[in-house]
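During the reporting period the student researcher (J.K.) took over the structure-prediction task from the postdoctoral fellow and processed the backlog of single-chain submissions. One of the processed entries is reproduced below for the supervisory committee.
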Amino acid sequence: MIPYRDNISCRYTPWMTWTLIGLNTAVFLGTQFLLDEPQRNVFFQLYGLVPGRYTHPDWAALAGFPPNDFSPFLVSLFVHSSWLHLVLNMWLLWIFGDNVEDRMGGARFVAFYIACGLLASAMHIVFNASSAIPTVGASGAIAGIMGAFYFLYPNARIVLWFPIFLLPLFAEIPAIAFVGLWVIIQLYKATTFDPMAQPYADVAWWGHIGGFVAGMLLHRLFLSAERNR
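J.K. obtained the following structure tokens:
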């Protein structure tokens, strides 16, 4: 099942949601078309989030990582490994981001997005402390947006598309049910997933959970008083 849209109308133009989608897309296009594969792997290694880089500094120094460089915590949030990875993340940002931005305003929304992404990255490091695999993607920040949506719009409904033989089969369910199922999947994957050696990873299951919890706990700190009267 693929979320198609929600039933919540926005009162304001979601400029920052569109900007984040554009920025993520621009970074992806740059890494895909301006870098060859060896250069891309080096870029992911340097700017993807490598937990062992921060938990094992002696190993990180031997591996050639620059010391005291925390830029991957931010940069990795805007890097994607494939078209599918980008489209899935941006689609969820498109569906849920505009409504959350509607309640926060542009600047607060971007700050919230980054805060959730940073906390998601921290959660990923806690549960994968010895990993040498760089992780990239905006999914931790987007999980935070879904956590905020869960509480801001408890009566919202999501239209799902079921691509059965490519037929246009749609069904509308409560947003809480969709987000709840998403959380269950993340918990299942986080506790059963066995990471394999690969150049980079585009899924951080514990990071998703960390971002979602961050969104639930922090969203009210970022709400605009004017937009929530």
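The committee noted the following: The mean pLDDT is 90.
J.K. will present the remaining backlog at the next meeting.
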